[in-house]
Structures are given as C-alpha cells and as structure tokens.
# Entry
Amino acid sequence: MSFLTNQSATRPQARMNLSPISHPLFLTLLLVMLFSISSWASSWSQADKAFAKGDFAKALELYYKARTSYPDDRRLNYDIGTSLYKLQRFEEAKTELMQAVYSSDTNIASHAAYNLANVHYRLGQKSEKPADKVSAWREAIALLKKAIDLNPHYENAKRNAEFIQRKLKEELDKQKQEQKQDPKNQKQDQKPLSEAAKQALARAMQLCSQGRFTDAKTVLDQIIQADETASQLNSNLQRIQDIIDISAGREPSKPMDASNSTQDLEVI
# Structure
C-alpha cells in the first residue's frame, strides 16, 4: 500500500508566541484553542488508524473532520481521495487526488499521481464506450509516467504502467479486429468528424510538424474526450504517443505477454 503515513510527511504544527498573561478570559480562550488543535490532530490520527484497519468509511469521515482545520493541506486531498478510491467512489476520488498531484511535496505528488492513475484505470474498466476506455487508460499511463518522473525509483508505478500499456494494446487490437470483421457496420455506425474534431486534427498535425508532439497529444486527448465523433482519431493519438515514447527513450506499447495475463494492478 502506497498510503502516506505520518512518518513520511509530518503534520503542520501550531505555533504560538504568547506573552505571559494571567487574565482568566484569556486563559479560557487559550485552553479552548489548544483543545481544538488537539481534537483536529486526533481526528487525523484516528483516520489513519481506521484506514489501516480497512474501515475506509470511518477514515473518510474523520479525514473530512480534520479538513475543517487544514482546508488547504494537500495531504488531506490525498488521504480523502485514496479513501474514496477504496470505497469505489471513483469520480469523487479523481477530484481529490487531482488536487494532491499539485502538491509542492514531490512525495505526496508522486503517490497522488499513482493513485489517480489507478482511478482512471478503474473508470476505463467500467466504461461501455471503447473510446472512453482507451482515453481513460491513456490518461492513467500519463499519470504513472508523471509519478515516475517525480520518483524515478517508483517500482510499483513502473509495473502498473507496463501492465496498463499491455491492456491498452489489447483493447486497441480488439477494436481494430472488430472493424476488420464488420467494416460495413463500422462505417454505418461511425459518425463523420465534427467541425471541431477536424479543426483539432488539423491543429495536432500542425503541432507535430513543429515537433511539438506533447502539445499535439493534448489537443487530440481533449477532443476525443469531449466529442464522440473524434473517437476515430485514436489511431492518430497512438502514433503520436509512440513518437513521444521513442523520443524519451521508452519503448512504445508492446503486445500482451501471455505469461503475465493474470496480473492485476499493484495495490495502492
């Protein structure tokens, strides 16, 4: 489990510089403040314990309680997002983990990117639309590469990236085979590219001619997610991704290795 613990990232500490004042009202307010800080810290600690025991609903409740004290702490985005993932509330988990990916702490950011990749993989699994599945899995791979960039020794992220790349290759091969088997129905069912999709493709090709392959990939990713007619651009997107991988010294997607066909994602 790649869940962050208090040992890997310390909680913010309350800092007070107080002059010695003995006014009863002041002392009462001070005691209330200290009790509140202790209560919030206790909620976070109790949430960690509940998560470790597998009581993710209770952990989520306590993490939300701790957030009242630390509303901008990215670690809580991570903790809440991971708890939501465990509860299979994937869309909510995606929102929380995306915030954690922006953490200035590379340890938190890399773990958040890893878990967010798993969210996208699960959403792809559940999708009934082949284009949505492909898009979600490509996003998962991109997030795992981000996790690896932040932590080059992140072995679980490397294994998951290889696994999802194989699954993506399988899915793309399956879609191609279905098109070959029934090309007439495929053409009948396939809607022509919308004007927005045509413009996006033209823009992506222009960016490729300038060597801006990552920008081109982003353009196609966005239009494929937003426009159902753009699903037929997946092959263009794959070619661009292969160029990016080769330029970065990575191998493009490989055929499925039968010896690992039962492998699943590493546990978060």
